[in-house]
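User: Can you help me understand a structure? I only have the sequence.
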Amino acid sequence: MRAKAPEPAPSPEPEPDPAPAEPSRSAARRDLLPDVEKITSTLSASTDRGAASIPPAAAARNGLSGAFLAGFLVAVLVAAAALAAYLKAPAIAALNPALEGQVAAYVETVDAARAWLAGLVPADPVDREPGR
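Assistant: Let's start by predicting it. Here is the structure, written out as tokens:
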């Protein structure tokens, strides 16, 4: 029989690295934010760099944007059509007698809205009271 080879002695386990010291709370929070002095040193006024270094605006706003202009024009056209229908109500009613009732109701509604608006504005501008 063969002799058993001696089993190797267990190697000592390596000691774990000592735990890093717990940084103080203020130091940990300070590391979350960028260094203010470093950022400040990289900033300079635009006059130092010249006007050529200033990027142009992304979109020049010389006029009204297309969507706003389209919406505004639609609102103006609807108001103009409503005004024309109010002013030409007798002629519209004369064209078709079946429309007389609807035209009269529309005119009465517009007249009521005008009376309500007139009630909001005082007759004499000097007659205004504070808090009214």
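Now, to help you interpret it: The chain has a mean pLDDT of 78. DSSP finds six helices and no strands in the chain. Let me know which part you'd like to focus on.
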